[in-house]
Every structure is written in C-alpha cells, then in structure tokens.
Design goal:
By secondary structure, this protein is mostly helical. The N and C termini lie far apart (58 Å).
Length: 44
C-alpha cells in the first residue's frame, strides 16, 4: 500500500471509531430516560 493509502485508512478508522467512542461517552454522561420522551397526541 502506498503511504497516501495508509494515511487515508488511518483517517477513516479514527473517524469511525472516534465517533463511536464519542457516542458511547455521550450516552454514559447523559443516559436516555423514558420520562424525557414526549407524550403522543391524544387523537392517536
């Protein structure tokens, strides 16, 4: 593989796994609760 391909591969891996780690950390700090969801309209 060329050095350019390796650099692009590393950037892609860091982007995907970094986003996953950021999402997990965000959910750990601010867990979703059932109370936070809006109530459905009464017509339904």
């Amino acid at each position: 593989m060329t050095p350019t391909a390796v650099v692009m591969l590393v950037i892609a891996i860091v982007t995907v796994w970094g986003g996953l780690v950021a999402a997990v950390v965000n959910l750990a700090r601010h867990p979703e609760t059932a109370d936070a969801e809006p109530t459905p309209p009464s017509e339904l």
